[in-house]
Amino acid sequence: MLDAAMAGLIAAVQWPAVGYLFLGIALGLYFGAVPGLSGLTGMAILLPFTFGMDPVSAFSFLLGMYAVTTTSDSVTAILIGVPAGAAAQATVLDGYPMAKRGEAGRAFGAAFTCSAIGGVLGGLFMGLSVPIVQPLVLSFAKPEFFMLGLLGLTMVGSLSGRSVLKGMTVAGLGLLLSQIGYAEQIAIPRYWLNTTYLLDGLPLVPVVLGLFSLPELVALAVSNRSISDVPRAKISGGIMDGVRDCFIHWWLLLRSSLIGIYIGILPALGPTIADWVAYGHAVQSAKDKSQFGKGDVRGVIAPEAANNSVKGGDLVPTVAFGIPGSAAMAILLGAFLIQGLTPGPEMLTTKLHITFSMMWTLIFANIIGALLLMAWANQLQKIVFIPANLILPGITFFVLIGAWTAGNNIGDWITLLVFGVIGLIMKRAGWPRAPLILGFILGRIMENSLHISMQAYGIGFITRPICLALLAAIVITLFYAVRSHLRMKSDTSTVDVTDAEAGEPRLSLGLAIGICLLLVYAIATAFSWPPIVRLFPLAFSIPALLLALFAIYFDWRAIRLAPAAAAWSAVQTLELTRTLKFFGWLAGIVIVTVLLGQHVAMPAFVLLYLLVWGGYGWKLALTYAAASLGILVLLFDYMSPTIWYPARLLRWW
Amino acid sequence: MFRRALIAGLTTLAIAAPGNALAQMYKGKTITMIINYPAGGPTDIEGRIIAHHLPTHIPGKPNVIVKNMGGAGGMIGSNFLGEIAKPDGETFGFFTWNPIAELLGDPGMRVRFSAFELLGGVQNPVVVYARKDTAPGLNTAADLMKVKEIKTLSLDTHNTNTVHQALALDVLGVKFRAVTGYKGLKEVETAILQNEGQLANSSLPGWRASIEPTMMKQGIVIPLWQVAPPVKGAYPRSPAVPEIQTFEEYYATANPGQKPAGVNYQAMRAAIDAQTAMFRTFFMPPKANKEAIAIMRGAIESLWKDQAFIKDYAKAVRSDPVLVSGADGETIMKSLAEVSPDIRTFLQNYGNNLAKR
User: Fold this and answer.
1) Is A453:A149 a contact under the CB 8 Å cutoff?
2) Per residue in B97-111, is it b (16+ CB within 10 Å) or e — as a string?
3) Preferred mutation among A46, A51, A202, A445 to probe B, highest tally of B CBs within 10 A
4) Alpha-helix residue ranges (DSSP H) falling in B120-261
5) Domain assignments of chain B as residue spans, ordered by start
6) Does A333 touch chain B (CB under 8 A)?
7) Which residue of B lies nearest to A42 if distances are taken between CA atoms?
8) Do A48 and B52 count as a contact with CB atoms less than 8 A apart?
9) Which of A342, A448, A638, A648 to probe the B interface (max B CBs under 10 A)?
């Protein structure tokens, strides 16, 4: 085995493999950092280029690229609150608030360091465990997936802060949203509003961008301040502080890396889930939760370590059994086939050196990628001091592109806007948003797993040994969550966690009523479906409806007890007006796109926003608009061909 | 009829004289190939190999770029091609299609497969396999008949894969419990490895590139039969898997002197024949430019004579690709339209009842 490890090392550092590794890393940093692209996109685009390569070069190229996308995707998550890829979603929760208080450098230091360490640990694990991990992979079938989903849902408590009732209600809403589209059991579409777009369910990226990024964009547009709340002269926390944070919280870093590896090993789960689970774990296990959601560096360390280490874990079932650990690994399986390799025993015997070359590639790429980003971090963090109205068109541009590339469908933009409004209301009303994403991600996995488990094993699936162990973990987690919640209630010095701060009671009441009506509609609609299709939606919609009714009662009581606090102020009216105007601009982009296409709508938005809203001159506005058109053409027409909306009046493609 | 004759004539012209004025319409253009499944799946891998080699066979050597539009069982991509893509010959689809959806209709299907312009297809048999440790033990395929009950794994209840698998077992009289709802055949393969169920289907690439080397050669599963594509009314073994017996051969061994017959068998063949005869399909939008159809049909036929393409394809799929010409594809599509209303109703009810069994 040592000989194979050395042979793998030599193969990985030999020319041309090492050249492809560096090229892959450079492309990976790009694919990771640009919202709308990702490691998955990179994998699909680069795969055909490996046709003529030898196997080690091909895997150095692809894995070098893939390894670092989850390092560079934290750049936009921290700087502008826009997760460049699905794996950086949880990083936004604390990374962006850190940037807002002038600690972008520290957040970068922490993110890049723990990404590198997590990635190296993932790579080492991959290399060393491939030959021995078979029992673990094979013992996690559908029943265990269902129980794991249930365990994931227990994190709702941690992600809800004081508003556990509201957190559980929105988790129910997230589960409901996950039910949109074809049922897994019978091809009956649910909640699809007769729209083909909804048949495959709501896409995750526009939902997350809408919930988390659009409200921040609105805040920037309304306030017209820079992202950083503190002036440049008063910034604190340099890159090295972030590096130090990683070592101070080494135990969390290690645990999060292990969570990532573990999730990676399980087939079909990937970075999207790993970062949320690691984030939830960081909050759950912290004694002082008060700063989570407000810029706690632990909220950056946990997801960033996990979303890099997950890739080493991902490779294990892919290499050992030909079972892809994630969507990107499914494409890597294509590379195996193109290279004439067969995942499985061959990769553990005659081709073991190729398996080890993958391990070395992961290790080198993670270290080199992080070092390169560290070198640029000082320049990158200057973005947070640019005036809002100057940077906002650029951020809006990337949010829209990020949402569009989810499915190249105008529905992605409508989803973005709808969830932007929902996210804004939730933020103002003091409702936690993270549990909605948790419910949304876990809903389909849980339903599908439960359905198959019941068919394959009957209710007896619960007695499988790992299921019993997971059940015990659920009970213990719930016990500690309840105890911690009760303590937090009694401790008035503790500040609320996540974004569930005290909101506007009338808005909160309105939201609770809205959710209630939605759940009533969902329940009523579900009764027209066969039992097998309606079972899961009903199983959580009915309890969620009860919770929403309680939320209505508590909000109504709060308004009655303190009517003055609920009163609407003049400042709020002004903010609302500006918010509506900003959404008017976004709606304008959609309308112009439908008529004239994105190549007109997006540069036109940049131009007009700078002139009209920002009050900048023609010269700057025209240059900015031309640059946005250039990015559209260069990055999204030529480098990663994108299907644009076929405009009614003008066809670009 | 005239349109078909014209396309056939133009195809001949496009193959015979690639440098002529008709064939220059793609010079300097970019052609988009829509794949109706996500990146990384078997459809995608085959599609990307085709996209890599196709440009040199299209006169004018245009760029061919790939766009994955997966979702809703392939419907998102096919709806896009049918409703949104311009019929100017610059967009075509490489699809895994679902003949049952064509037969029975589907709430999400806004454009029927038969409405598209068919450029060609790729033939593939389906392989049915089972775990050897299924009680009382499957040392040979014939031992399946001794099994008291077997759990079968498949996709949703109205998918061609699921329905033909269940019907085949009903024809044989094997008692089974259908476990449905897996999202793809790769997931099914994983579940078989985990012993969640014992019997499943695979496409040819799945069998050759994954199941055969990782599960069959390890002694975990054995192939039971292949569902072979129809050839002139018979079902001879596919040359892609000559070592595996056909379903008809299996039936004849299990029931000496008899041939499979009856409504279950008719429905099974109605469900699967079009699929195996043309597993992957090349489509252009309805009413696409007829010159473009002719050129692309010619280019696909020319691609199949390209040894570099055959080598790359065979390396990934572990079997030479079998082309279905556009004209033959149209005949297959027509055969679906001839399926009787009784069989259609039977299939609809069969799918509905499968989940309740």
Assistant:
1) no
2) bbbbbbbbebbbbeb
3) A51
4) 160-172, 185-193, 204-206, 247-254
5) 2-123+279-341, 126-272
6) yes
7) B39
8) yes
9) A342
Average pLDDT (B232-259) is: 91
Do B25 and B60 form a contact (C-beta atoms < 8 A)? Answer: yes
Window 493-552 of A, Cβ < 8 Å to B: 530, 532
Q: Between A44, A337, A340, which is nearest B68 by CB?
A: A44
3-state secondary structure A312-342: HHHHHHHHHHCCCCCHHHHHHHHHHHHCCCC
Q: What is the pLDDT of residues B171-182, one digit of tens each?
A: 999 999 999 888
What confidence score (pLDDT) does residue A618 get? Answer: 93
Picking from B40, B156, B182, the nearest residue to A333 by CB comes out as B40
pLDDT winner (highest mean) among A109-113, A136-140, B69-73:
A109-113
DSSP string, A107-168: HHHHHHHHHHHHHHHHHHHHHHHGGG-HHHHHH--HHHHHHHHHHHHTTHHHHHTT-HHHHH
Question: Nearest chain A Cα to B79, which residue?
Answer: A196
Strand, helix or coil for residue B223: strand
Does B157 have pLDDT greater than 90? Answer: no
Please give the share of chain A, as a percent, with pLDDT higher than 90: 30
pLDDT, tens digit, 9 for 90 and up, residues B26-63: 887 889 999 988 776 778 888 988 998 999 999 988 98
Q: Which residues of A touch B188 (CB under 8 A)?
A: none
Q: DSSP character for B283?
A: E
Tokens coding B328: 């033959």
Q: Specify burial of residue B243 (Cβ count, 10 A radius: 0-12, 13-18, 19+).
A: exposed
pLDDT score of B10: 58
Contact list, A345 vs chain B (CB under 8 Å):
213-214, 218
pLDDT in tens, A322-373: 777 677 887 787 788 777 777 776 777 777 888 888 899 999 999 999 999 9
Which tokens go with A63? 């894995």
Fold match between domain B2-123+279-341 and domain B126-272: yes
pTM of the model: 0.79
Averaged pLDDT score across all residues of chain A: 84
The Cα B25–Cα B43 span in angstroms is 28
Q: Is A475 exposed, middle or buried (0-12, 13-18, 19+ CB in 10 A)?
A: exposed
For the segment B221-241, the average pLDDT, to the nearest whole number, is 91
Q: Please answer yes or no on whether A48 and B178 come within 8 Å at the CB atom.
A: no
Task: Determine, for residues B108 and A408 on separate chains, whether the beta-carbon distance falls below 8 Å.
Answer: no
* Domain B2-123+279-341, CATH homologous superfamily name and number: Bordetella uptake gene, domain 1 (3.40.190.150)
Inter-residue contact B129 to B250 (CB < 8 Å):
no
Picking from A40, A187, A196, the nearest residue to B79 by CB comes out as A196
Of the pLDDT bands very low, low, confident and very high (cuts 50, 70, 90), residue A498 is very low
Q: In chain A, pLDDT over 70 holds for what percent of residues?
A: 91
> Which residues of chain A are within 8 Å of residue B218 when distances are taken between CB atoms?
344-345
CATH fold group of domain B126-272: D-Maltodextrin-Binding Protein; domain 2 (3.40.190)
The model's pLDDT over A15-55, given as tens digits with 9 standing for 90+, comes to 888 899 999 999 898 888 877 677 877 887 787 778 778 88
Chain B nearest C-alpha distance from A567 (Å): 47
Task: Delimit the domains of chain A by residue range.
Answer: 11-503, 570-639
pLDDT in tens, A209-250: 898 888 888 888 887 777 777 666 666 668 888 899 999 999
**Using a CB-CB distance cutoff of 8 angstroms, which residues of chain A are in contact with residue B84?**
646
Cis peptide before B42 (omega within 30 of 0): no
